[in-house]
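ARCHIVE CARD
CATEGORY: sequence design from structure
SOURCE FIELD: tokenized fold
FIELD CONTENT:
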């Protein structure tokens, strides 16, 4: 997953979160069918904010753009101090009835990465979990997204990861690998390219050697 840095001009410096105080991740929709980063930034400036209020933006074409990132946000009133935020391009309470697979999968990968980076996150839910609002919209696939399961072609990758995690347990039990939590988190968060295939290949060789020595 690639995260694009923004070139926004903030009206004042952003303040970093104390990540150990973060316990949730709020999911939003843009509440507009076409707005991207620049349009939302302009609107938020009109409200007197420092600029774009969300941590990250997931576009309909699957691009992920950093907004405020790990800096204090303006997205969930009365809860900004303990929540990170991700907003999805689109109006999922009106015009947009179905989220594109590429956007959905990018969102899943981002959520997994954020949970890996901030392990104190215990709750991933829609804006309305914390505030009386319709956001992220009645057509937003909230329950599906909370399952953290990828759609479509991405499922093949997900299955490869499941195989890798099973083989990781085998390698741990046979004393072939140390720091299993480190490897588990790397597989889930995609921090090391093709790691799942390396783990599966290594386990295959270990089984082959053990069988030959039996």
């Amino acid at each position: 997953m690639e995260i694009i840095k923004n070139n926004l001009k903030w009206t004042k410096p952003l303040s970093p979160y104390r990540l150990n105080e973060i316990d949730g991740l709020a999911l939003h929709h843009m509440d507009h069918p076409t707005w991207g980063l620049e349009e939302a930034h302009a609107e938020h400036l009109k409200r007197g904010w420092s600029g774009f209020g969300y941590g990250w933006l997931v576009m309909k074409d699957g691009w992920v753009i950093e907004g405020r990132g790990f800096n204090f946000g303006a997205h969930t009133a009365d809860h900004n101090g303990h929540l990170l935020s991700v907003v999805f391009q689109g109006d999922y309470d009106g015009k947009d009835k179905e989220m594109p697979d590429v956007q959905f999968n990018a969102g899943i990968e981002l959520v997994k990465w954020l949970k890996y980076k901030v392990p104190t996150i215990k709750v991933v839910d829609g804006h309305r979990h914390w505030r009386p609002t319709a956001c992220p919209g009645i057509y937003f696939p909230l329950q599906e997204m909370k399952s953290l399961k990828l759609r479509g072609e991405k499922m093949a990758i997900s299955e490869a990861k499941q195989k890798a995690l099973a083989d990781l347990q085998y390698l741990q039990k046979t004393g072939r690998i140390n720091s299993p939590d480190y490897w588990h988190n790397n597989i889930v968060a995609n921090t090391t390219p093709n790691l799942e295939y390396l783990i599966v290949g290594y386990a295959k060789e270990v089984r082959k050697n053990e069988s030959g020595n039996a």
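CARD ANNOTATION: The chain has a mean pLDDT of 89. The chain is about 40% helix and 10% strand.
SHELF: design records, drawer C
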